[in-house]
Design a protein that fits this description.
Number of strands: 2
Shape: globular
Order of helices and strands: EHHHHHE
CATH topology: 434 Repressor (Amino-terminal Domain)
Distance between the termini: 9 Å
Strand content: 5-15%
Helix content: 40-55%
CATH class: Mainly Alpha
Number of helices: 5
CATH architecture: Orthogonal Bundle
Length: about 80
Amino acid sequence: MTIIVNLDVMLAKRKMRLNELSERTNISIQNLSILKTGKARAIRFTTLNCICEALECQPGDILEYNPGPQGEDEDC
């Protein structure tokens, strides 16, 4: 299983840069960059809420579930 973060797609659709999103949400550019590159291991609902509010989107617009081959993810 893989969770894909489409933050870069939503930023492009909204014609917004990461630094502008950081200013609107008070989330550091470093943390947003970790999310954008898909390197984050977790996200708080409050963080997701702030991002969705700033981008005027739904959580499903940012996060996508992609089922991989069975046994791929040992965490579940």
